[in-house]
Amino acid sequence: MKALRIGAVVSAIILLLMTMGNHEGKVEDIFLALSAAGLILLLIVDWVLRRNGLRS
Questions:
Q1: Angle at Cα 49 formed by Cα 43 and Cα 52, nearest 5°?
Q2: 35 closest CA partner among 7, 14, 6, 4
Q3: What is the structure's pLDDT at 23?
Q4: Within 13 Å of residue 47, how many CA atoms lie on the same side as its CB?
Q5: Helices marked H in the chain
């Protein structure tokens, strides 16, 4: 499970790094940022559930 959490953090970082580039529109940036935010939100929810003992 620890590898999955590390993979989620690495994926979020990669998604945010992909916003830097030579593309014209901002739709891609919004999509990438929302995807990274979703991953981070899932990690926070998982951390809270584990901290409160609601998830093993």
A1: 140
A2: 14
A3: 79
A4: 10
A5: 2-17, 27-51
How many angstroms separate the CA atoms of 25 and 41, rounded? Answer: 26
In a 13 Å sphere around the CA of 20, the CA atoms on its Cβ side amount to 4
Give me the pLDDT at residue 55, please. 67
What are the pLDDT digits (tens) for 1-55?
889 999 999 999 999 999 998 878 889 999 999 999 999 999 999 999 988 888 6
- Which of 36, 54, 32 lies closest to 45, judged by CA? 54
pTM score, whole prediction = 0.84
Please compute, for residue 18, the number of CA atoms within 13 A of its CA located in the half-sphere on the CB side. 16
